[in-house]
Amino acid sequence: MNSQRSFIDFIVAGAIALLIITIAGFYWFFAKSPANLIASTSQPGAAIFVSKLSPAMVSLLANPDRLQALDREEELSKLKTSLFAKSGIDYKQDVQPWLGNEITLAIATLDIDRDSENGQQPGYLLALATKQPEKSREFVELLFSKRALAGATLAVEEYKGVKLISDNQPKEDLLAGAVVGEGFVLFANDPKVLRDAINNVQAPDLNLTSSPEYQKATKELPKGGLAVAFLNLPVVAKWQGLELPEQLYNSQIISLALNPKGLLAETTFLTSSEILSPSSPLSKPVGALQYVPASAGLAISGSNLSNLGNSDLAKLWRQATATIYGSGEDVVSRLAKPLVDVQKRWGINLPEDIFSWVQGEYAVALLPEKEQATPHWIFVVEKSESVEQGVARLDAIASSNGLSINTLTIDKQDKQKISAWTELTTATKKSDVKEGASFTIETKVRGLHTALGNYEIFTSDLETMDEILTNKDNSLIDNPNFKDSIAAIPLPNQGYIYLDWTKSQNLLERQVPILKLAEVLGKPFFDNLRSLTVSSYGTDTRSLKGGVFFKLNNS
Q1: 462-501: buried (b, 16+ CB within 10 Å) or exposed (e) per residue?
Q2: What tens digit of pLDDT does each residue of 18-41 get?
């Protein structure tokens, strides 16, 4: 039995599960006792043990037992029972009495022995806040005595006044532990990681709290957040063996905080360079959303796409996707496949042929259909002289691709003139005449556009255009779920990306297969997720701030 791995796995999986349970179940608990889920501090105290060269640190700033009320599906209880049982530890008796209000997990170093010739072995540091130091010391002794009974040989040493205990399990299963001072119990996958952690406390210029980047980042944290994560972005890229072509942002901090309607994850990217917003901030949702049906599964709205490709937001996107995927193009092509397909079919360049003339408000939306893999799309843009020129350019591109430009009306909308880009095709059908087959000519609509109010509206098909014209009083901007979601996002901001999870789940799973694995791991969360809304805001010229609001069922 691998008791060390079971114990570390409990903490890692437990921290993740606690966050998931918090997100998935908080709405049930919030109305009963909201104050109980406000963290006592917004910054992790364990940062003093973490090197300022650490790529990542994640902290849960609440006692797990305070989240027990959220465990409606008993996921947390099952986790405690199964994983602690493998270590021979009774959580309620051995851990609960001393565990405090913080669990921090950090990648302490990219390579413990700093020898590249024998491969890279990251060092992991786990810090558990203790409210009863003597009880926690008893726990550490108990844990290692059980490992000794299982066949391990223990090593005990005093290092700068701290008692370190470790075992001689195979290298990948090694465990080291210590109680440091009156505040924390530390565990690591190598005694050297613990020695470095103690050094970081006694030489403050080595630890994360002395990092100017970390100091700037923590100033952005809201009060009462339940969890916080800090990423050293250049080191994260190095950890993944990536050479980024563009490195604008140096660090990122993320916090999770409760909201009466859901949970808000706020993040700030920091840079030493002067940055500019991609467009003027908006003090209210754009009017273009009034033409997006409430049935939309994905909607993106804002203003001024003309400089999007060179904006700092775009640079962040390229840096983030390159760090996660190794290529920015891969994730874009997957998530925006319908637009990529249009671009290929028409032989156009979206930034040059469309985005360049969108200087006012805009909205882009996808309407998923269960019966088909490719969703319908909508593009709404505020009228201007540049828009008129842009439409004329698209008409010219359509003609050059062999499409006809026709004016038509829909039966129920005989006063609304619609321009359609159509293609004539032939179809063969069996004939009763012995001489051979007969042919029919079919007209396929490749896109449409029309003017309504102060906006030009483009759609992929007649059915979608008809829905817009017919259901003017059932738009996304009037949808209660959408209203609740954007109400959680601070104003002014740069617009919204709104995803209705219940309508888009099938589409996203097809485009991003790894999402299915995430759903299995985070089942309580995804089972209750209703929608998520993303926005960027803030006026600091050396940081980019944004948030993701998760709205859950019945919240």
Answers
A1: eebbbbbbeeeeebbbebebbebbbebbeeebbbbbbbbb
A2: 444 333 333 333 333 333 444 455
